[in-house]
Structure formats: C-alpha cells, structure tokens
Amino acid sequence: MPKIIPVPDELSKPFWDAVNERRLSLQRCTACSKLQYPPKQICQACGSGDNLEWKDVEGKGHVSTYIVIEDGRLNRRMPDQPYNLALITLDEDTSVNFYSNLPGIPPYEVPVGAPVKVIFEEVGPNQLIHEWQVVD
Amino acid sequence: MATQPYKWRRDTDGLGVWEHRGKVAVAGFGHSPVNRRWDETSMDQTLGAYSMLACELAMEDAGVTPDQIDGVICCDSHIAGNSGGTASNWAPRPYFDPPYDSEWGLTLVNGDWLVKNMELPNVKYAPSNVPTIGEMFGLAAQSIADGLCTTCLVIYPTGNMEGRYRRGGENAEDTAGGARQWTVPWGNHGGNDFINIFPHNQYCLKYGGTHDDVAPFVINQHRNGLLTPWGYNASSGMVQLTMDDYVNSRYILNPLRIFDCDRPVNASAAYLVTTAERARDMKQPPVYVLNHSQHNFNHRTTQPDLDEIEEWTDRAAKRMYEGAGLGPTDVDIFNPYDGYSIMAQFFLEAFQWHGVKRGDAFAFYADDIRVEGPHPFCSSGGNLGNGRTRTAMYTDSIEQLRGTAGPRQVTVRAETALAAFTTPSSGGWMMFGKHPN
Questions:
Q1: What domain range includes position A99?
Q2: Which candidate from A4, A69, A95 shows the least CB-CB separation from B175?
Q3: What CATH number does the domain located at B24-164+264-279 have?
C-alpha cells in the first residue's frame, strides 16, 4: 500500500522540492551552524529567526532504535502491518533525526546501530519522500 | 463571559516560590460513572449529563450551593480532552430535544454550556479555550489567587463512543499536511505513545533492562484501580491483571503492549477550588495548593530522544520543587501521568521520588510499590488502572491528604502530593498540601 502523501506548505516547499530532485536539503542556521529538521520559522537551537538557509546534506546516518507498528491508526498503512518504524540519526549532526520504514528490512529484523543512506521513494504523482536504506 | 485573559502560566525557569502558596485550596470533588463508551441514546450518560452530575457531586462534597459558584473552568472537550484533531470528532449525528439539539452536551462540553444548563446564577468567570487538566488545574489555582473568582468548579470531561479509537478524520486521509507531513508518511500518527516509545527503547539500552520490566508497575496500577470504586476497572467488574496476562497481551507499537495503554472511557470529573480562607469553612478539610507549574519545551527535531526527555523532565521537576519550596524527600504522594506506562519512569526519576535516580526505575518497580508498602508509587492507579479519565491522579492526591482513600490509603506519611497530566514535553504539575505552609 502506498504511503501517505505529504502536503508541502510555504515553509516546507523548498525541502520537498529538493526531495523531488532526489536531494536531502535541511535548514542550517548561519548564526549557530546547527542543522534543523523539520523546517521551522526560527532556529530551535539558538532562537535566531533571520539566519536560516537551505543546505544539501550527504544523507548518511545510523539506526538508533526502532519499533514495529502492529496496530496503528492510519487507514492507508494498515495493510502494511506489521512494519518497522526506525529512528535514524544523521551523521552530519546527530541531534537531527528522521523516521524510516527501512525498505527491504523484514519486520523485527532491524539492525540497530547499522549505517544507512538516504533513498527516495515515490508516494504519489510527482511526490517523493526520503527513506533510508541499510548499507551493507 | 471572560475569555482566557492573562498570563497565568508558571512556565519558565527560576520563578521562585509561588507567591500564592497555600492560599488556594481544593474543597470538593465529584466523579460521574465511568463507562467504556456513550451509546448515543442514553441521555443521562452524555458527556454533558455526566459533567453536570460531577459538578453536583463536587458541590455536595464541599457543602456549597449553586448560587455560591462564581467561576467555571471546563476543558473544551470532545474526546480525551481537547486533543486528537479531526480524528476525535464524532459529529454530525442525529440530534435530540434541547439541551441536546447540537453537539454541545453530547460530546462537547465547555464552561458556557455548563453555566447555562446548570443554572448557575452568579458565575462571573468562565474562560474559553481552557487547556487539558494538567494545565487547567493551574489555571484554576492562579485565577482564584488573582481574584478572578472565589468559588470555582473545575471540570474535565473525556468522551468515547462506538468504533475504534481515533480511526477517522485525518487518520483516514491519504495526505498529510502541517506537522503531520513529517511523521505520518512513515506511520507515526502522533501521540504520547510515539513520543515516548523510542526514548523508552533507548532507556532500556542505556540503563539495562527490557520492556517487560515495566510489568510490575502496570500490574500494580491495575491493583490500585480495583481499589478505586469510581474507576472503570472497579466499577466494571474487571479482574486483577496478572503477569501472564501482560506478557501474553498483543502489541500495539511493539514493544508497547495493549496493557501499556490506558483505556478510553466516557466520564467526567469536577473539583471545587476556592480560596484557602473559604475552604476552611466548608464541609471537608481543605487540600491546599502549594504550587502549580507548566512546561512546553520545543522539540529539537522529528523525534525526542532520551537525552531530550531527561532534560525536559529534569527542568519540570526543578520548576515544581522551586515553586513549592519543597524537595524530593518532602513529597509523600506521587501521582505522575501514566497514560502510557513507558512515561512514568521518566517522571519518577526526574522528581527523584523516594530517592530514585536515572536508570533506577525498573529496580524500583520490582520492589514493593503497593499502597500499603513503603513506596506507594501512583497510589491512584492512574489511567491504566481506572481508564482514561486523566483525573485519578488528582482525586487520589486529595483523598490521600484528607485521609479518606479507603483501601488505597497509604501507610506512610500523607501530607504532600504531586499530581500531573503531562507529557515530558508539555503539560503541568500540581503540588498539594495537607497544610498551607
């Protein structure tokens, strides 16, 4: 079953535009140099409001931990149950994390601590999302 | 009617002792029956009817009459408080004769509706946009301390109806906007279960232990719930949960099991909050408010991790202790929020109740936490033991300080109590005292 389709807004459009070009681009605060995801109007680290720029990142990370969704509430994902929901930390800034279903990894068999790389998955017409793949 | 008018929250670090410490008191409480669901036909079991009943019981408990009420603070509720987004909306439906000719009174209740339908003639303060009970109790305490009202009904309704919980609305949609665009595509529909399960896994890795180490806590919550006559478990003929029941129960978000989650119910509770001076002339011994504090910490990224959760809960504990002028060894009754079992260890360790430090919770759970024992943790039974009323923590704290908790009455000292409905990132805490000083 296809995943649920994100709906970009004014703040998130640059992010999703980059994803649709198969790039992972995060906000970066030029005042404190911290990366930020999801995008916000101000830097969550230093509170700066006028110093956020977009920066492409390499898209490498590690699996921090995971759960398996066996009885979730999202109608569209119910046929997928059980499925992994992993927490990925970004190598460039480990305070930034992402969710991933870890395509290709069977439920319950998630290698915690394993390195991952970003991939892109089509979820709707002209809409990709960022996903993560375990690197052998 | 007034709207929520002023900066009442105590939600920053370093505020010092609350200037109104001991000058506000809880003088009464009342609970409706706790049903699993409203059947959509029994008009004496609507959320409105149950809220009016709870108010009547609270006034009776305190010994006040409707004409003495000058404040009504009611969380604007539909289901499970004011959370859940469109997935918690149950309208439209066929309606009934007044006062149930709209959604109001059925699954929606607020101060204005209660003032009108309870015929409270002297209410001068009924704010709108009232938050959930963790903060609402603080709003009530501060409002009375600031003289906005003197004798106030504080109501928290939580509704539930037929059908799977929160399976509709935005959870049935094929797209996700707003904050949900960052979570829903991967399966996170949002909520405290998701917020806490990842840090809980990290907790087990960092400090050792497995998820099932929370089982003694969950089982004890059910035990305390069966000692709470008004709660769902006790009033519905539930039997005591066993370790076998727990470890063989199905998973929701593996490793989170069904018994780690509270049971949605249809119920309402009300509290009579007043000035300490007035409370002394009322029917019950006053339970004084020694502090209220709130927090709403920014999420750094998509998912809070263990470090963030520990930092937030440490800050919340510091705020509360500072405002109450008390420390961990001063707290006798500790009723943190337990809507998902995996949150409680973060609160227990942050507040260092009975000396529990970071990483010690599972060993503490394995010790004697029964109400008659030396460490009566969550003597209320909370939401796991009573259903998702989110009020058991407050009522038990009041009863313990009054000395009227019946079979739940602790055998240790009961002169101060901490109670909360809060997540690690947002919500509020209350400190109650048997004495004002």
A1: 59-136
A2: A4
A3: 3.40.47.10
